[in-house]
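Q: How would the structure tokens look for this protein?
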Amino acid sequence: MDTYEQVGAQLRSFMQGFMGAQPAATTMREAESGAARLETEARLRRRDTSRIPGSRHYATVLAYGNFIIANSDMNIRCEAIQGVSGVMTLPEVKSLKGGAPQVTLRRYLTHFFFENPSVVIEQNPHKESTGTLTGAASGDTHALQPGRASFSQYLILSLNGKPLANRDPLVMTAERVEEWPPIGAAFVSEAPTHFYELERVNDPSAEPFATLAACKAVTVSELSVPDR
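A: Here is the predicted structure in token form.
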């Protein structure tokens, strides 16, 4: 079985190839026309709310964060960390008290990598990260967009090779989602999140090693990943 480091290297190689790939076409006009047509088709598909329940998607993400290291003057600012996310939407559509539809989300893949300073962020495999997509208006599945999406995430964060984990979830919310996957949506952290040394994350006496003071993640593009 591949290690986290091997899987991370494979994901980074894939993202670099995906983001750097250029379409082959006879002329630039043909390339632009073909890209515009594909994007229009993709946008229509992402705005089809009937496709949301029971779906699964992958997307590239750019993250921005500000880490404060405890007992030091170190403040690490990370800009545009490239990453990938994987999200499953459960099939059941619930109706809230006010009539708004809501589906439950499960985030099963998170991977971010930044070289300077060295930052690697992975999903914590021992804790479930969940969320919700809630329509802004009352109705059935068709009212899921526009909507509000929120995730409660448990992560393993490696700062300069030191593994850390959060005890309380990192809650990130996008107030307006008009497509699913939520291309263009910005998820913003609701509060600072403390990270502890991984081996002491469940020790009540442990002090935070680092604090993610603020974080924003922008969903950039959808990834097409074939099923095995």
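Residues 4-223 form one domain.

The first helix runs from residue 4 to 20.

Upvote if useful.
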